[in-house]
Specification:
OB fold (Dihydrolipoamide Acetyltransferase, E2P), 34% strand, 2 domains, 136 residues, 5 strands, alpha+beta
Length: 136
């Protein structure tokens, strides 16, 4: 087998795995939108960027269900909020989240109006204070 043939096979394998990973992610999100329960979680950390998250604020949160602790992450475009505002205003605060009852590790925190729009819920009055930190 020639070197160029090995390279082609390697590229096909990498593209195949990447495709499966992307499809799996979309499938998990659609399952969450179709079948979810709600809970609250506390934001524990806001960091800028990271691998594959350039231009985003990565929000880490914890929640507990039936005595088991789960950790989730939520990504906000850094053009919408600064890391400093996220740290100052959101860390230590509780926010609503949705999770899949069949797979509670599959969750999404609901912070911004768009998060509520995605699941056809009205943005609650109790979170109006968040809007002062969001850039249009």
């Amino acid at each position: 087998m020639t070197s160029s043939m090995k390279n082609i096979i390697a590229i096909v394998v990498v593209i195949g795995f990447a495709s499966i990973w992307i499809i799996w992610g979309f499938w998990g999100k659609s399952k969450l939108n179709e079948n979810h329960s709600s809970q609250t979680g506390i934001i524990t950390k806001c960091t800028y960027g990271g691998k594959g998250n350039g231009g985003h604020i990565l929000v880490e949160y914890n929640y507990e269900l039936n005595g088991k602790k789960y950790i989730g992450t939520y990504s906000i475009l850094s053009s919408k909020i600064t890391q400093g505002d996220c740290e100052k205003a959101f860390v230590g605060k509780y926010f609503p989240l949705i999770y899949n009852p069949d797979n509670p590790a599959n969750s999404r925190m609901l912070i911004l109006p768009i998060d509520f729009d995605r699941i056809s819920l009205q943005f609650p009055d109790s979170l109006m204070w968040v809007l002062q930190y969001v850039k249009e």
